[in-house]
Structures are given as C-alpha cells and as structure tokens.
Amino acid sequence: MPRAIYPGSFDPLTNGHLSLVQRGLEMFDGLVVAVAQNQTKTALFTVEERKQFIGEACPDPRVEVDGFEGLLVDYARRKGVSVILRGLRAISDFEYEFQMANMNRKLAPKIETVFMMTGEDYFYVSSKLVREVASLGGSVKGLVPPNVLRKLQSKFGKSAGG
Ligand code: PNS
Q1: Exposure of 3 in the CB half-sphere (CA atoms within 13 A)
Q2: Best residue among 42, 81, 100 to mutate for probing ligand 1, ranked by most atoms within 8 Å of CB
C-alpha cells in the first residue's frame, strides 16, 4: 500500500489520533500526518506546537509530520499521495465525514478517502472535549499523550493531569 495522508486539526493530538496512526501504519507504507491551518477555527495550540506534539509522539520514520493551507486535495496532489485516511468514531461523525469525502471526490476523483474505526477505548475522545475539560479543570490523563498532557497542565494548571 502506498502512503496515505492523515489530515486533521489535531488541536491537540489525542490518544484516539495516535491509535489511528498506529493502525494506519499496519495498512500503509507510511503516513503524512497533515495539520490543517484552519482559519475558521480558533485554535488552542499553534500549528507549530501541534506538529511538534505529533512528531514527539510518533517517532516512527514512516510518519512525516507536515502542515497545509488551502484545499486538502490540492495538498494531496502536491505531495503525490492519492489516499486520505480518516477516523470514524460514531454515527455522529458519519454525516460530516460523508460530506467531506464526497466533496473531495468531486474535486479530485482520483483521490480516495479510506476510513478506519477509532480504537474502542477512545470512541468518546475528541480534541474539542479535551480542550473543554482541561480548560475547566478536569483531568484528561490517559486521553492524550504525555507531552500534550504536560502542555495542557502548563496552560490550565495541574488539575488537567488528574
Ligand atoms: O480534525 P478535523 O478538524 O475534523 O479535520 C478537518 C479537515 C482539516 C480534514 C478538513 O477541514 C479539511 O480538509 N480542511 C482543508 C480545507 C478543505 O479541503 N476543505 C474542503 C474539504 S471538503
């Protein structure tokens, strides 16, 4: 299997994302984990910080960490990669993912989106909930890798670490 692009906001990286990277590496020769510079979302971490979290948590040489602006399919074409990997947690993800996959197919028919189910331990974990819980003083220990936990603790105080 050739390389695939695993795109997302990764604000911040969670153990659910990591589970997908690990399983993606069983299926593809390599992964480009691509952090979207999404102007419409207010981010907690900068793209550079998010890329650093991913690089530290995924030291595998088959993982390339990158950032991109603009359309994902244009980025994929520039990288010469024709598979997009996305995780599906629950039915609630489906509609959004279905719309994106179909829009991307309309824009670039040769680029295929492949879905993998998120690891069962992380079905309820999202970056949005991690940000919310940590900012309100709840523990996100076990839901994010240690480097992200440390950064959340330094932003929001020790309670984010449980
Ligand atoms: O982690 P997210 O926020 O669910 O990831 C969404 C992402 C970044 C994959 C999506 O918003 C995206 O591809 N953005 C790039 C702009 C683009 O191509 N938009 C059209 C997609 S249909």
Answers
A1: 18
A2: 100
